[in-house]
Amino acid sequence: MRPTSIKDIARLANVSHSTVSRALRDSPLVNHETAAEIRRLADKMGYRLSAAARSLVTQRTDTIGVVVTTIADPFAAGVVEGIEEAANEHGLSVLLANSNADPERELRVVRTLEERRVDGIIVTASRVGALYIPELERMQVPIVLLNNQHPGEFAHSVMIANTEASEALAGHLIGLGHRQIAYLGDRFGRESDAERFEGFRRALTAAGLKLEKRFVVHGDGRPEGGHEAMARLLEGPRRPTAVFCYNDMSALGALLAIREAGLRVPADISVTGFDDLYLAQYTEPPLTTVRQPMRRMGRLALETLIQLLAGDRTKRNLKVPGELIIRGSTAAPQRKL
Length: 337
Known about the structure:
By secondary structure, the protein is of the alpha/beta class.
């Protein structure tokens, strides 16, 4: 059985096709009684305006594009969950795309979403460089960046308060008695890495501790990079008693490198992460970390986008506080310092 069409309603209501179309989009050109009768017939006949037809009328597709670094990233999964949750509440659909942490691919993906006529775009952990900013700014589609890696390039963003959270996490290690603390960063992290390192440095400075150059290494934000960077830290004649990892994924690699060296966590080395991914509580030992409210950040990004779509262009750079989560991977140093 074919679906009911506007022609079917027009024939039954004895009006023109254009009158039915106007009535269904609440046009004031159709008198109240006629419009009410047309809508009654449409409901009775089970007529549903298609998304394509509705977009022609409203110039909106009710679709939001979301670009993630990789769909395998647990952080991205948590953020997207929050975005979809808020989008459903507002009657919006979500179109997900993967950039593979490649700036050029990220730009191509954003262009494709623009061509698909999405109403707005959220880009998580954006790595687009300054070369692409003018082109992105020329796009008419509102864009909100979540955990942007390039400061000051977009008016609208949602980020974790990296510096404050990192200072608290490093302060936890110092409070346990650690004085030889390493920083294992992400060479691709850009702004977030700089902010987390700044918080780490502030905590050391406040405690009167000197940061040793050899105790600062960088991976790539993944377990493989964390493993390689941690192995370098363990090669020297003096090893740290604690290591602050840029994120939980880096910490996974660090934990493996420490085990392979015949050392124990936290008896020989304390380890911290950042993000509080679901797997952090299941590592051995469970990982001390900073919890990023991923779902809340996703919701805030979507709600910011909705405000932009409503015409509000107020500059928004939202900073969300993190939460220190203390687990078994950190303890007081056992060897004499």
